[in-house]
Amino acid sequence: MNQFQYVRPTKAQAAIEAVAKDPNARFIAGGTNLVDLMKRGITAPQKLVDINRLPLKQIEHQGSSLRLGALALNSVVANDTQVRERHPLLALALNAGASPQLRNMATVGGNMLQRTRCTYFYDLSMPCNKRQPGTGCGALEGINRMHAIFGHSEQCIAVHPSDMSVALVALDATVQVSGPRGSRSIPFADLHRLPGTTPERDTNLEPGELITAVDVPDSPFTKHVHYQKVRERASYAFALVSAAVALDIENGIIKAARLALGGVAHKPWRLTAAEQVLVGQPATEETFRRVAAVAMQGAKAFKHNEYKLRLAPNALIQALKTAAAA
Ligand code: SF4
Asked: What are the TM regions of this chain, as residue ranges (predicted)?
């Protein structure tokens, strides 16, 4: 067993310093992904900085946003009255993720920072540029049925596994972080990275930066929303494909739209071009089919995941129809 130090600071600054000073230190909160990674030998931090004593569990409306503390539990956020009323899409996405037991442990911050479930990433006998840069990608020529159809590179074709993040990118959320150089805000769409030539980096966080909260701005998307998740087991599985849809409809005409796909890229995949096509159009199946065709522009599949080229637009159309009818 790997030995590691374990500390439980009560101040954010102490936690940040402990991780910023030590490249082998990691923050831990719910531990629902990190502990798995440690057990399997994917990562071996020499110090765990437990942040559960930091005061980061709040869910409160501030100004024109709902602020979710980074340590708010997924189950608590999903069942919070303000979340369900102001951002029902987020509640739907959270409840589609993991299992009730995991949602009772997983935090908002940890959910967005969970690592890919690419099986080659978890198999130490296989090459993986994300786990060990420069070794190759086992999935490129392997069984890549779970993998990306957008934004992939020759070095990595993994997908991001979070359902919550698909809703947050659609809802224009902003991530609040504190680090050794102070605090900053990151638009949710810029938190996660595409793999490019550095697939070992999942996010644009700097060493020692701690996510403290996520702000979800007020919006008109309180009624016509849907999160469509397609998975292999209804009880508990990561998305083959998911679609987050939020519409503002008046007299049958779409005034505004927010769309994103999950299970298709190294980051939650916002569909801004498709959103623009929806504006001013009637909320009909014919419109939704045109929009799905726009959404799929640029998609490229591999040997075993060609089905996603059909599944993704179908999931999006189904989500649009369900949202419009809500
Ligand atoms: Fe590793 Fe990415 Fe290739 Fe999976 S797809 S084996 S995570 S480099």
From this structure: none
